[in-house]
Automatic annotation (TrEMBL):
InterPro entries: Aminopeptidase_N-like_N_sf (IPR042097), M1_LTA4H (IPR034015), Peptidase_M1 (IPR001930), Peptidase_M1_dom (IPR014782), Peptidase_M4/M1_CTD_sf (IPR027268)
Cofactor: Zn(2+)
Record-given protein name: Aminopeptidase N
Peptidase M1 membrane alanine aminopeptidase domain: residues covered: 332-483
GO CC terms: cytoplasm
Source species of the chain: Alteromonas profundi
Signal peptide: 1-21
An annotated GO BP: proteolysis
Length: 576
């Protein structure tokens, strides 16, 4: 999702990345707090020593609700694993919730055996904890309500047009601990998840994975969902409304068949059907360009939400009001769906590498436009993305980052559009075959993915660089040093006389940048090596154009002038 390309005005977002000291097991249990703590409002970043070696083998999440009072009742069972016994273990849970009971390996713990002062629920029994350990947490409370979802995370208690409850979750920026106990780190993904969601009739609960069963209990229904693969923690999502359902079976270019499902509100049925009809072409595009749909054993799921959208694994949130752009498709649904490959199948192992989610996901929009309509549509979308680059921070810092650090202290919106342009430039440098082979290998961990021969992977920028260097059969470290690890764009210096024109690259910190350069002279294109300065003989009457096919992301004053004009216009408007 395009989350915080601009700095948010709401004060609560400013504390997400604040440093906090880890609580100790001697802290006294406190009453639920009205505001979520800075520890809760960050996701990723510094790892608690109690969680560093913990993995989540299975999560069983049970939910019920008091919609009138906006209370969530949760009962979570986690199977935790670690290589050696530990004196303490912790999971993350917002202090807004009242913890009713905690159980460890079937034994109910005394209140003195656990604390949750800052949002890190610390389990510290008298005996050493052996693994695998079964941790159960029973809790309830009013979860954080977002001010502006999905840019601001939490649980939305909305109403449909007929007054029915409409609940949705979106927690990418703040993490899973806003509504269920989890390890709020990329490595905290459960290997298997079951969800039991109880709602009053006629409400429908749509969430991740495969619908196993619906149990009728008087005026209530319990929906039982189950995942069949590792699931992104912030991608676990609740969606509750009087949904109607569109479904069909889809056969992919790989020959496997899987279900497509769209849960939508009853109104605007014709628009819902039109949106649903876009899915087959989108799936085919991704499978041709990248590889097999990653979660074919579960479903392709879309659900209508009261917020704009989010890449919730196998149940992508959609709230774009059925708006198509000039490409003839709903760009937001396509962007969120791209995250099934870039974010869910491939997950960054540290939020510092978030461009692997958002840069690749953003590049899929111009690429899809090219797939549908050709080069003109491709460059129209690329140029629209190019206008907003800031270039104030490197895309990758090679530091441990929380997600909010990336937005508030790092590249922010550049991980989207600049990331997409880096990929466009890399594609032109490598050629299509080597480029797409590299992307496929990054996403699946192998160059030959087929249904059933891969599983979700964790990766970082260096993993991608290693794959690119292998497939390009040359060392392209210089490319990534300039585009990812430096903030400023390379600048093309042009010096022209009546008899010659000389080209040279200028980079931040004078880094090497032997980027080949196409030059058009009176319409004839030549390629300059650019290992050093390159000079071409011309006359004063010749028309010379550098990079005529717009292959290279570089500093251009025209974009800076446009940004300045737009900023001045916005200032004048605000003063009127």
């Amino acid at each position: 999702m395009k989350r915080k390309a601009l700095t948010l005005a709401c004060a609560s977002t400013l504390v997400y990345g604040c440093a906090t000291s880890s609580p100790t097991p001697n802290d006294q249990t406190v009453k639920p707090q009205e505001l979520s703590t800075p520890y809760t409002l960050k996701t990723g970043g510094e790892i608690s020593p109690r969680q560093k070696d913990i993995t989540v083998d299975k999560a069983i999440l049970s939910f019920s609700f008091d919609f009138d009072k906006e209370i969530l009742h949760g009962d979570t069972k986690l199977t935790l694993h670690a290589p050696a016994p530990q004196k303490e273990v912790s999971v993350d849970l917002d202090t807004r919730f009242e913890i009713e009971d905690v159980w460890l390996n079937g034994n109910k713990l005394a209140k003195s055996d656990y604390t949750n002062t800052y949002g890190e629920l610390i389990i510290a029994p008298s005996a050493t904890i052996s693994f695998p350990a079964q941790l159960r947490v029973v809790y309830s409370g009013h979860p954080r309500t977002p001010i502006k979802a999905p840019w601001d995370g939490g649980v939305m208690w909305e109403k449909t047009s007929d007054g029915s409850p409409w609940l949705a979750t979106a927690v990418q920026g703040e993490g899973c601990d806003l509504f269920w106990p989890c390890i709020d780190q990329p490595f905290g993904e459960p290997k298997e998840t079951e969800l039991f969601v109880s709602v009053p009739k006629p409400l429908v609960a749509a969430t991740n994975g495969v619908l196993i069963d619906i149990k009728e209990q008087g005026e209530e229904r319990t929906y039982h969902w189950k995942t069949k693969s590792v699931h992104n923690t912030y991608g676990i999502a609740l969606n509750i409304a009087p949904y109607e359902q569109l479904s069909e079976e889809f056969t992919s270019i790989y020959g496997n068949t899987f279900p497509l499902t769209y849960y939508h509100l009853p109104e605007n049925e014709d628009k819902a059907k039109a949106l649903f009809a876009e899915l087959p072409d989108m799936i085919t595009f991704f499978e041709r360009m990248i590889g097999p749909y990653p979660f074919a054993e579960e479903k392709v799921g879309i659900v209508q939400t009261p917020h704009l959208g989010m890449e919730h694994q196998t149940i992508n949130a959609y709230g774009n009001q059925y708006r198509k752009d000039d490409g003839g498709y709903d760009w937001l649904m396509q962007h969120e769906f791209a995250h099934e490959w870039f974010g869910n199948q491939l997950t960054n192992d540290n939020w510092d590498h978030m461009w692997l989610h958002e840069g690749f996901g953003t590049y899929m929009q111009p690429l899809y436009a090219q797939y549908l309509h050709g080069n003109e549509a491709y460059f129209v979308k690329l140029n629209a993305q190019r206008k907003g680059l800031v270039n104030a921070h490197p895309i990758v810092s090679n530091k441990l980052m929380s997600e909010e650090d990336v937005y508030e202290k790092g590249p922010a919106g550049d991980i989207y559009a600049k990331g997409a342009w880096v990929l466009h430039t890399l594609r032109g440098l490598m050629g299509d075959d080597a480029f797409f082979r590299s992307v496929t290998e990054l996403v699946y961990g192998r160059p030959d993915p087929k249904p059933g021969n891969f599983s979700p992977v964790f990766a970082n920028t260096q993993d991608f660089i290693d794959i690119v260097n292998k497939n390009s059969e040359q060392n392209l470290d210089w490319f990534f040093d300039v585009y990812l690890y430096s903030a400023k764009l390379p600048e093309l210096l042009v010096k022209r006389t009546d008899t010659a024109v000389t080209f040279s690259w200028k980079t931040e910190n004078d880094l090497p940048f032997p980027m080949p350069l196409e030059v058009s002279i009176n319409g004839k294109v030549v390629t300059l090596d650019m290992q050093n300065n390159a000079t071409v003989e011309v006359t004063k009457f010749d028309t010379v154009m550098a990079d005529p096919n717009s292959k290279i992301l570089r500093y251009e004053q025209r974009y800076e002038d446009f940004k300045a004009y737009r900023a001045a216009k916005a200032k004048r408007t605000s003063q009127q």
